[in-house]
Amino acid sequence: xxxxHLHKLVxxxxxxxxxxxxxxxxxxxxxxxxxxxxxxxxxELGSLIALMYxxxxxxxxxxxxxxxxKQTSK
Length: 74
Known about the structure:
Helix 1 crosses helix 3 and helix 2 crosses helix 3. The chain is mainly α. 54% of the residues lie in helices and 0% in strands.
């Protein structure tokens, strides 16, 4: 994992699909689970979605809260 990947989860929007436009950090768990079962996209997007899946699956979404707060205060 690159140090900036957590920051990218709260600043990168899903580029396609049912949740197009939603921040990766806000994708629902069932959608992340679908990617885990069916396969993550290639490249950085896939790495970010896989990271978000791990955070969600291990109940660690709260780790993104400080980064969200920085985004809203800008």
